[in-house]
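tool_log.txt
---
The assistant was asked to compare two proteins side by side. It first ran the structure predictor on the initial sequence, then on the second. Raw inputs and outputs are pasted verbatim so the downstream comparison step can read them without reformatting.
(1)
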Amino acid sequence: MNQQLQVISVDRMNDITSTVEYFLRTQNPVSENTSCVDVLELFHKDKKLFALPILNDQNNPIGIVTRVEINEYFSKQFSKELKGKKPISTMMDSSVIIVEKETGIEDVARMVLDAGMHHMVSGFIITEGARYLGMATGYDLLNEISSRKQKQLFDLAHFDQLTGLPNRRLLLDRIKISLASSMRNQNNSAILFIDLDNFKSINDTLGHNTGDLLLQQVAQRLSISVRASDTVARIGGDEFAILLNDLSEHHTESSEQINSAGEKILVALRQPYQLAGNEYQITPSIGATQCRDTLATPDEFIKQADIAMYQVKKSGRNTLRFFDPIMQKRIEDRAFLEKELRKALEEQQFQLFYQIQVEGLHRNIPVGAEALIRWVHPVRGLVSPAEFIPIAEDTGLILPIGQWVIEAACAQLVKWSKDKKTSNLIIAINVSAQQFKQIDFADRVMEV
């Protein structure tokens, strides 16, 4: 063949499992002057032999000959008479891939793909300082690459790429295993749901790269704050969860163990962080739940701990609180009311009541009215604004509700203007701060 010998070398890597040395097979080479028929005999004697490296007088590899190639040639008529006594260098494949033992596995894989898949069959030669060491098969390379890709896919599916911690999916699997173990061994387990207080301000002021550094430091602190048998996971954003295993079966004792673990985490995360050359502090809010209900699912346990954490946020942050079923009832009630509130907006269940405003204490001359919104629920009847306005503010529904109030009040004002007794009245309405933040708020009012 006319192709030149391909010798490739890369920087040495420390880990042998990352280099082709991992595949090294000792294989006695043959000299370039060995006759073709003698090489054929070597293949006949060793049925496992797939290829033979060919060296020159300086012990440098110069090519390769495979079992398939030599058998195919000598199966032809008169082939032994024509070429049997010639040196094997006349039959060798000089385009063989030759790499130093420090070459990375991924690099060799790319070389094989670029050079042609026939090298996967013939294999490649491994050298040290250009001196022959041995050979490696393409099949070994393919199996290793496949195995590594499978592991990479597994890691992508089960581990957080920023912190290296298990993700929610892997945490759920481990909770299942922990629940089964708890039933067998008569012990208890628990989940801590951790959210960083005011993390958004770090991202907004220092940037997301610095925020990522903080999350990595938090992950490290959490990992060293628990036992090896426990699981620390990143749920997403600035939310983490910890599965505490092998707790006491007695409720009081396990509660004390959870409190102890929580306090250790609070202390660890409150310590200053070095970010962007400066020192910052951040506190955690922790919700906890004991995994005692055998009918509950892993997702439900995480939800319980999340609910408890939310209550910590509402009550001041920077502490630990246990889940209470009453918490869940309140949240479920709020979620139901939000759903009903959206329906009320669609079905126009709101009404405006008007509180008359008079001029002077004794004259009682009407000068205007204040528009007061009321929700007339088809089942519950009148729902107090104190109950639904906060939900509307939190969910953003206050914007379409506020717009409806403006339109309904203006429509009423038009009706009053047609009557001499009420033509001079003005209407006052309550406007949410969120409405004032709308850039086109004034235009919306003028359009009405």
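(2)
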Amino acid sequence: MDQIEGKAKLFLDFEDRLTLHDALVICRFYRDLFAWDGLKKIIKGTTGMNLNEVELKKIASNIINLTRRFNLREGMTQKDDILPKRLLEEKIGEKN
């Protein structure tokens, strides 16, 4: 898939769902089985909270931000916050 349009939105959606999977201690292998509707049902069934997708994304964003703040407090610097060289230089489809 060579298109770039829309990938950031797709990635953020995926990251938010995975963050909630981690917070709920749901196996990541189920990430494609439990999209937003599934996550809403799990949270409703376990907590009684009837949250919509926007509210769930806000919770996921808060978790991500708190994790980032924790890492910064513990000494993570901009030097540590980089993608691996391979992701920045290796062309898609290139085999080693």
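---
observation on (2): Helices lie at 7-23, 36-47, 53-73, 85-89. The two ends are 20 Å apart (CA to CA).
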